[in-house]
Structure formats: C-alpha cells, structure tokens
Amino acid sequence: MTQPVEIRLKRAERLLEVAFDDGSRFALPAEYLRVESPSAEVQGHGPGEKVTLAGRREVGILRLEPVGHYAIRIIFDDLHDTGIYSWDYLHQLGREQATRWAAYEAALAAKGLSRDPPRRG
In the 8-state DSSP scheme, what is residue 115? Predict the structure, then answer.
C-alpha cells in the first residue's frame, strides 16, 4: 500500500497534488476526481452501474477531511461529499488518469453530454 507524503490542495487551479512514498506524483483535477468519485452515487452498487456525470468542468474542491490514516473525504463545491478516497484509490486514479479521462470523454460523447454546466437564465 502506497502512502502519501504530501497532499496539496490548489483551490484556484481546481487541482489536488499528491506525492506518494514510491516517488510518484500526480496532479489530479477536481473535475476528474468528481467524475471518478468512489461514492455509490457515481459508481453505482454493482458492475456496469457507473454513472456518467455531465456538467462538472467548473467544479472545485471546498475542503479535504482526513478519514483515519487511510483516506480523505473530498468536499466539492457542488456539495458532493460522500466519496472516500483511499490512498490506493488516489494512486490508482493518478496512474490511470489518461485512460480513465479518455473513457469519460468518450462516454460523454456517446450520450450526447457535455463537460460544461448547463446555462442559466
């Protein structure tokens, strides 16, 4: 199990930077973390139930909360706060970022959805 040695929230850039004890470092955009949330709301309750979230391009992170010595809870400014991101899951998100992001964009396109939030007014 890899452990983080540094976690830095960059609110203005909507970015979470995580450095791990294996030497890896990842810059994880808030939008990516939100659409890959480990919560049941996003992942569903079983295989093949993952939800494709649209309109999250501008989502930010309000704060991080430690969960024991194994994870963090990320509170997003769209008020989503039920995902618990274990160190292993954060590391996996970093390693698989390019593949997961491409799959997300393909899923949006296939469903005719956009990363942009809906316009108001």
Answer: S
C-beta of residue 89 within 8 angstroms of C-beta of residue 70: no
Helices (H), 1-121: 30-35, 40-43, 87-95, 97-111
String of DSSP letters for 35-61: HT--SHHHH-SSTT------S-TT--E
| Chain mean pLDDT for the chain | 95
Q: What is the pLDDT of residues 63-91, one digit of tens each?
A: 999 999 999 999 999 999 998 999 999 99
- Contact criterion met (CB below 8 Å) for 100 and 93: yes
pTM of the model: 0.94
Question: Following CA atoms 90, 104, 11, 119 in sequence, which dihedral angle do they give, to the nearest 10 degrees?
Answer: -160
In 3-state terms, what secondary structure has residue 79? coil
pLDDT digits (tens, 9 = 90+) for 45-64: 888 888 999 999 999 999 99
35: tokens are 């659409």
Contacts of 28 (CB under 8 A, 6+ apart): 15, 16, 17, 18, 90, 93, 94, 97
